[in-house]
Amino acid sequence: MTTNRQIILKDYVKGFPKESDMILKTSAIDLKVPADGGAAVLLKNLYLSCDPYMRLRMGGIHDSFYYTSSFTPGQPIVGLGVGRIVDSSHPEFEKGELVWGMTKWEDYTLIQSVGSLFKITNTAVPLSYYTGILGMPGVTAYFGFFEFCAPKEGESVFISAASGAVGQLVGQFAKSKGCYVVGSAGSEEKVDLLKNKFDFDDAFNYKEETDFNVALKRCFPKGIDIYFENTGGKMLDAVLLNMKMKGRIAVCGMISQYNREEPEGVRNLFQMVAKRIRMEGFIVFDHYHKYNEFSDKVQSLLKQGKISYVEDITEGLENAPSALIKLFHGANVGKQVVAVARE
Amino acid sequence: MTTNRQIILKDYVKGFPKESDMILKTSAIDLKVPADGGAAVLLKNLYLSCDPYMRLRMGGIHDSFYYTSSFTPGQPIVGLGVGRIVDSSHPEFEKGELVWGMTKWEDYTLIQSVGSLFKITNTAVPLSYYTGILGMPGVTAYFGFFEFCAPKEGESVFISAASGAVGQLVGQFAKSKGCYVVGSAGSEEKVDLLKNKFDFDDAFNYKEETDFNVALKRCFPKGIDIYFENTGGKMLDAVLLNMKMKGRIAVCGMISQYNREEPEGVRNLFQMVAKRIRMEGFIVFDHYHKYNEFSDKVQSLLKQGKISYVEDITEGLENAPSALIKLFHGANVGKQVVAVARE
Asked: What is the pTM of this model?
């Protein structure tokens, strides 16, 4: 038997999650797939992904309200990750193979439903990239931008939470399409990253702006064609005032709203009529079947050095709760990852 | 010289418009197009149209906020209407012809920009129909529903302000497409009209419902595929909770918001992500070039008796202000028209 540390959700969360909402529990695990468990794989978790949507699963809200079910108090946090298969009774998976997909916040995870696992074949990039640029956030950014924003060369694109896992990629995809790209983020360090690392045309620190409408008018004197929405609330309201005719808003997420008891009201929706705006929500689930198209393209961009990617890696499973919490305070710089083990 | 009565906007309006915001002024007009005025037509106004968007033009809000410029205090109200040409210096228009398009709230109007005028060729229907089912509201309903809602047979459709000029037509178009159709309206009389005259599957009086979410769940236990949005505010919030996966919201207008100092906040926009909802605003201006396609179809439906249409006709230009105000209190039953003259 081997020690298996787990990060357990104590109870449903209200407001901002706190470290004390999760506890580290140590149990033991046999590193074998159970003989009577059907086709399954046993995963050694290497990297765990911290993603904004996870807050939705911590609240105990009825499934139908969100697109994802709640976590179970008393059980480990569930999330995306990268792992190595240490045992398998599944005909399509072999011991030693690397995968990414849905796993749990623990050292080892028995996965009886392998449907969400993608095999990792290219290991010339850091494995942690499969929690980000080559994983769920990458697929989100790629199809969210190219399908839902329907971008044209020369159009103006605004991205909120722009230095995050998804935002930084959307910005670079937009630049590659010949768009004028501006992002908002929550610190000078992030603004610097947007301008100098990711080559955005402009960026602003929303925490230093008293009026988002003024900030947007300064960056987009002629208005916004495309808004890639990651935050919701006040920023969306200000964007609506600054959209151009026939603008498009792709709604990826609304992180500014997830810790609120009640979401902020958005008041400027009539602008959708005045400007003939199209706003559409999307979820990455619906686009995983196109993973290879995405992967070929982005692996190639990475190889050619045409795309940058910034991660914020927290070391140690025991620090996973604080890593997750950083996300909701914008304390991470780039994609937030937890390194559980290196191999 | 002939007497020309005019309905003048006294000043910009705040809150609900009142009769005293408009005054009847009598002046005199020469029933001739001025010799030095370029190509123009002089119209005798027969029917004037009362439409919700007109409230947006009464507020003195900067043009860019809405899709239409403000009225000018001290000048007549501008709106759609049906008229007969009493004189013309324009090569394409002749004395005696009937037209519909942008005119003013007065007995006679000199139109120097004829771009918005459509000639009326079929006079087998009431001429007032060209302010409604065969005019702007008809084009709005037709393209708003068939293009923006992308309806499929068997889908469930919800329409707010459903007995109004646009709503009653959208509902009947949806029924003709084989959809399940429910409407909301503001009185028992209107609900009865929806169910028994326009053949909606169900309808409710929103003024009698304490919780729109409950009302919608009752009418749509399996959810809504298509929402044709005419009201905004609380109803939109409740609809968002009841949309089905991949639902569509066509935003035509938001009459419940036009008289408010500040629009209501809409809180449930995250449902757009959870349900992958598409919401799109549209304006009839963009679709007038397809008028003939629309007109052929709807004239034929009318001729075959396959479509019903209800108007609320107020007699006399002097009563136009009270007719317009009825609209914002939902006191009209069906399309609100003002009859200025019959021929």
From this structure: 0.95
Binary contact (B276, A286; C-beta < 8 A)? yes
User: Chain B: residue nearest A231 by CA?
Assistant: B270
CB contact under 8 A, A269 and B253: no
Backbone angles phi, psi at A124, to 5 degrees: -80, -10
pLDDT tens, position by position, A142-199: 999 999 999 999 999 999 999 999 999 999 999 999 999 999 999 999 999 999 999 9
pLDDT of residue A295: 97
Tokens of A164: 């995050």
Integer-rounded Cα Rg, in Å, for chain A is 20
How far does A113 lie from chain B, in Å, by closest CA?
Answer: 23
**CB contact at 8 A, A177 and A195:** no
The CATH class that applies to domain B136-285 reads alpha beta
Domain with CATH 3.40.50.720 in chain B: 136-285
DSSP A266: B
Q: Are B215 and B204 in contact (CB under 8 A)?
A: yes
- Residues from A in contact with B at Cβ < 8 Å: 65-67, 232, 236, 241, 251-254, 257, 262-283, 286
Domain with CATH 3.90.180.10 in chain A: 2-132+309-339
Mean pLDDT computed over B262-281: 96
Mutate to test the interface with B, among A229, A234, A269, A284 (most CBs of B within 10 A): A269
All residues of chain B having their beta carbon less than 8 Å from the beta carbon of residue A273 are: 67, 251-254, 281-283
Q: How far apart are CA A14 and CA A10, in angstroms?
A: 12
Q: Flag if B286 and A272 touch (Cβ within 8 Å).
A: no
Query: CB-side exposure of A132: number of CA atoms within 13 Å?
Result: 29
Please state, in angstroms and rounded to a whole number, the distance separating the CA atoms of residues A112 and A127: 23
Cα distance between residue A51 and residue A71, in whole Å: 14
Taking the mean position of all CA atoms in its chain, how far away is CA A173?
A: 16
> Is there a contact between B83 and B105 (Cβ–Cβ < 8 Å)?
no
Q: What is the tens place of the pLDDT at every residue in A309-338?
A: 999 999 999 999 999 999 999 999 999 999
CB contact under 8 A, A254 and B275: no
Rounded to a whole number of angstroms, the CA Rg of chain B reads: 20
Which class is B2-132+310-339 in CATH?
A: alpha beta
CATH number of A2-132+309-339: 3.90.180.10
Question: Residue B145 is encoded by which pair of tokens?
Answer: 């529903």
CA distance A160 to A257: 13
